[in-house]
Every structure is written in structure tokens, then in C-alpha cells.
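Blinded run. Sample ID left blank on purpose so nobody reads anything into the name before looking at the predicted structure. Input follows.
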Amino acid sequence: MNIKCLDDLVTIAKKSTPKAVVAVVEAHDKLTLESIVSATGAGIVIPKLIGNEQSIRSMLSALDADCDKFDIIPTCRMEDSLDTAVKMINSGDANVLMKGKLESADYLRMLVKKENNLICEGSILSVTGLFSPPNYHKLLAVSDPALNTYPDLDGKVSIIRNAAKMLNSLGYESPKVAVLTSIEKLNPKMPDTVDADTLKRMNERGEISGCLIEGPISLDLALSSVAASIKGYDSPVAGDADLLIVPDIVSGNLLVKCMTLLAGAQTAGCVLGARVPAILVSRSSEASDKYYSIALAACIAAGQN
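Blinded prediction complete.
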């Protein structure tokens, strides 16, 4: 795979065989169905629509979609929809999950519930987004801007492993990882810099593989080779980062919203750390974000086959 823009995700997903099968939990949601109809029409995924059959059919008809071309699994309650989705994943009848008309907390509880057996051993859930900043020379991944609030060192190790594995599945042989801090030097009084330095050393010792980690490193140095040259910061990651690891959810949330709202970056995102990619998009997300997120999840699933 060679990912240069988000449309490449669509191209790859279209060519992938077999197609990713998406279990859409509580699928009776207009925006969710709109993105699923588009993705299905483009040949990206095969959806399994779990939820209120009457509402699903009505919404599909409103979207000028042929209901008979969609596999609808009727359920009466949210709990039934969640249980059905889990069974489909564990039986191999689906290999991607997507949230429909239910609270994110209920969706995430389904993923972490021990008896559902969905979490990868030794891992935690984290969100990684792919962004297309107009002033950067390639796609940029960011993790974790949505789930882990103030991850400790072990949490950051899992976040990096999840994101690196995702990028590896997309064809990145050794993605360049920038562990962000406000400065580029180790300062024992600043825990984020200590974690960043430790993560870099772990990578050098082979304890974190599949990527190249740099840190501590500030955002300007991670993204600008000019800034790195001016400051005398010598690193193959400087000015060419593939993945930004944020120190906490506040900085991550601010960073990605600045990219999308102020810079106009398009995005795709996925919950990682489970045995299958799980799509969890904000209710305020653009239709294109949902569409590209479906394509991303399909590519990850194809890369895991």
C-alpha cells in the first residue's frame, strides 16, 4: 500500500478482497446510514445493519437506497444490538465495528467488557486519526486525542503500539513517531519529557518495534525541517513525522480541532486496541470524515487478514 492522501484509502478498500464486513450497531441513525450507503455504493464494505428494522428501512428509502440490497438484522433493544455485534465479530461474520444511534460510552463498554473477548491481550483502547493538513507534505496521524485522558508511560507504550500497527497495516514500514512535548530537551521537572525520552530509549532497545521514535520533540520541530535546522535539532523524524503522540487528551483534542476547523484538514479515525477496528466518529463530524473512517477501518481489516 502507498497512502499519500485519504482518497487512497478508498482506492485500496475497493481493491481489497474479501471486502470488510461492518457490523453497524443501532444502525437506525440518518448520518451513519448516509455514510454507509455511500461506502457500500463505492464498493468499500459490506454492511450488516443491526437495529430497528422499520426505522432502518425508512431511512434507507429516504436516501434512495434499495433496502433489499442491505442485510438488516432486526433487534428491539440497544442491548440486543450490542450482543448481536459481539457475536458477529467472535464468529467471524464481521471484521469491523461501527457505532450508530447509541452513546459512545455504551459502545466502548461493549469493547472493553471482558467476557466479550474483543480487546487484544496486553493492550488498551486508543484512538488514532489520519489528517490531511494543507500545509504539510503528507498525511499526519495523531494519537490519542479522544480516549485516554492523561496516559502514563505504559499507556503511551500501548498508544504507540496501536498506532504503529495501524500504520504498518497501511504500508508504512517504519513510521516516524514524534512524542510531543513543549520543549525538545529532557527536563526531570517535566514528566512529559521524561516519558518521551524513555519511549525513545525503549524503541532503540527494540522494546517498541515497527516504528522510529523521537522525543522529547516540540510540534514545530516535528513538522518543520526549517525550524529543526534553525534550532540545530538533528533527527530523521524532524520535519517529516508520520505520527504525533500527544501527552494528554486536552492537547490532542485542541490539536486535531485546530487542524480540522482552522486549517480545513479532512480526517479519518478509528478506535484501536481491539481485535477488529472500531469506527467511532463525532456526531459533529463532516460526512466525508465518516466516509473516510469507514475506508480506513476497511484498510486496517484488510491488512490484518
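Unblinding after everyone has recorded impressions. DSSP finds eleven helices and eleven strands in the chain.
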